[in-house]
Amino acid sequence: MTVRKTTPLPIDLDYLRQVLVELLDIPSPSGRTDHVQQYVGERLSALGIPSTLTRRGALSACLPGPRETGADRAIVVHTDTIGGMVKRLKENGRLELKPIGTHSARFAEGAHVRIFTDDLDRVITGQVLPLKASGHRYNEAVDLQGIGWEQVEVRVDEPVEDIAGLRALGIDAGDFVAFLPNPTVTPSGYVKSRHLDDKAGVAAVLTAMKAMVDAGVKPAVTAHLLITVTEEIGHGASHGLDPDVAEIVSVDAAVVAPGQQSREHCATLAMGDGVGPFDYHLTRNLAAIAREHDVDLVRDVFDYYRSDVAAAVEAGAHARVALLGFGVDATHGHERTHLEGLRHLAQLICLYLQSDLVFPEWDAEPEGDLADFPSLAVQPANADGPREGPIGIVQDA
C-alpha cells in the first residue's frame, strides 16, 4: 500500500476572519437561507470550485481526487441558524414569537432583530423584550417573571399600537425574525457573536478549501462539500450526499462549558453526542492525524447535541461518521470562540483531506465479507488486512 504524505498548509487567517464576519452579517434562520447560500456559492466559485443546489437548498461542491474509482468522503457544514417566526400579532402592536431551532428565550431577551415581510424591499427592525420590561413600572416583579417564549415579545421599531397597525406594515404570521449577531473580533483573537454555530465552521471549511487550492494540493480521495440549510431543525444532511461517500465528517460548534473538555483555542474531536458514539475507526484516525502534525485537538462527548451526520445516518447513509468542532462558549446564547481554534480546525481539515480513507479497499463498497474486514482482534483495526486474534470461538469438528 502506498503511504501518502500529508503536509500542513498555510492557513489564511485574514480570509477566515473576513468570510466569517461576512457570513455573520447575512441573516439565515432555518427556512430563509437563499442569500447565505448564494454567498457561499460565490466564495466557492472564486476558488474555482463549482457547486450545485438541491431543490431543498443545500449546496454541493467537490474537490476531485486523483483516482477515478473507489469510495469518496464528504465534509458537511450548515449555514442555517436559530431564529424565530412571527406566531401571532398581538393586540398591543407587538409580536409573539415561535422559536426556530432549539434555544432558550432567556438568551433572546434584549436581542435586536430584523423582521422579514413578503415585501423584499422593506425590512423592519425590532427588539425582543420580556413582557415586564420596565423597572420603573414593575420594580421587583421584573425579576419574578418566568422564562419562556410566552414571556417575551418583539417591540417593533415603528409607530404601531395594535394589530391593524402591524398589518399595515405588511407583518403577518409566518414572517421570519432574524436575531442580529453583533459580531466583534477582539485584538486578542476572540470572536463574539450570535450564530457562530455554524458560520464559524463554514468559514473554517472555506479557508481549508482555499489552502488546498492555493497550495495546488489535490485531496487523496475525492472530497465532497455539502452545505446544509436545515441542521438547526433536525433535517441537516438527510439529502444531498453523493452515494459513493464512505466517510462523512461534520464540522460544527463544540461545547465549552463546565464538565466539557472543549476549549476555544483548539479544535475538538467529538467521540459521541446525544445520538450516540461516532465511528470508532474514523475518530481514532482523525486523532492520529492531529497528533502526527501537532494540531491542538481535544476529545469530548456531548449530551444535548446532534449534528448533520445524525440526519445523514437516519436517512440511510452507508458511511463512517465523525464530528470535528471549534470550541464555543455559551452555545446558542451569547457565543464566543477564538481564531486560534479555528486555525487548528482548518489545518486538521486540510490534513484529513490529504490522507486516505481509514480502509480504502474495504470501504470501496458498502458491504463485504466479514472475513475480509481488516480487524485486529477486533478493535483497533488495521488497514493492511485481517489479523488473527483471541476471539475465543472454537468451530465444531
TrEMBL record:
<comment type="similarity">
    <text>Belongs to the peptidase M42 family.</text>
</comment>
<dbReference type="InterPro" id="IPR023367">
    <property type="entry name" value="Peptidase_M42_dom2"/>
</dbReference>
<dbReference type="InterPro" id="IPR017537">
    <property type="entry name" value="Peptidase_M42_hydrolase"/>
</dbReference>
<dbReference type="Pfam" id="PF05343">
    <property type="entry name" value="Peptidase_M42"/>
</dbReference>
<dbReference type="InterPro" id="IPR008007">
    <property type="entry name" value="Peptidase_M42"/>
</dbReference>
<protein>
    <submittedName>
        <fullName>Peptidase M42</fullName>
    </submittedName>
</protein>
<dbReference type="InterPro" id="IPR051464">
    <property type="entry name" value="Peptidase_M42_aminopept"/>
</dbReference>
<keyword id="KW-0378">Hydrolase</keyword>
<keyword id="KW-0479">Metal-binding</keyword>
<keyword id="KW-0645">Protease</keyword>
<keyword id="KW-0031">Aminopeptidase</keyword>
